[in-house]
Specification:
Length: about 190
């Protein structure tokens, strides 16, 4: 049985299940060339590509009971981006659930991706019951890689994908649970912690 679709609150974000009405903001996000240059695609997003991705996000929620959330800034009600668990059907490894984030530029550098990413991991391990969660980005996306490390994911390697090279990270449930213990020291990017 799938977990019930759930809205999550963090200190600054409301993370709610994806809705068809998110398409306009999602289109604005993914057709921003500065944002799109950090997303692993072989060609720029067309409006139809964004509509297909939005529909796929809705399907994930219907099929799995989870998927990427629409991230809303609690203080203002503004649409921040898409954050959360995302099924990667073409991922070459056995673990295909990713924690990811795509945010409007005006929200970059404020720690919101980390805040939402951590909420996604908690939901994935505690509610969904996943054993392992991955995350991938272009090797050149240093900011996203830092977010992965802050969330506790560890670098696994690099892979060719969609005409570029991606760096991928992962965290197992046991490692995540150990990080939740009082007094635990989060592993750094170059430590096994």
């Amino acid at each position: 049985m799938n977990p019930p679709a759930k809205t999550i609150e963090t200190a600054r974000l409301l993370l709610r299940p994806w809705q068809a009405g998110d398409l306009a903001e999602f289109t604005r996000l993914l057709t921003d060339p500065v944002v799109a240059r950090y997303i692993v695609v072989s060609t720029p997003f067309s409006p139809q590509d964004v509509a297909d991705l939005s529909a796929s996000t809705l399907e994930q929620w219907q099929r799995n009971g989870f998927g990427p959330w629409a991230a809303i800034e609690k203080a203002t009600g503004r649409w921040v981006g898409r954050i959360g668990l995302d099924e990667l059907p073409h991922w070459p490894g056995p673990d295909r659930i990713e924690v990811g984030w795509e945010l409007h530029r005006e929200f970059w550098g404020r720690g919101l991706a980390t805040e939402g990413g951590r909420a996604g991991l908690r939901y994935g391990f505690e509610t969904v019951g996943l054993k392992r969660i991955i995350s991938a980005t272009m090797t050149t996306n240093a900011a996203s890689r830092r977010v992965m490390e802050k969330c506790g994911l560890r670098f696994q390697g690099e892979l060719p994908m969609a005409g570029t090279t991606v760096a991928w990270y992962a965290i197992d449930r046991a490692d995540w649970q150990a990080r939740q213990q009082p007094g635990s020291v989060p592993p750094g990017p170059d430590r096994r912690g």
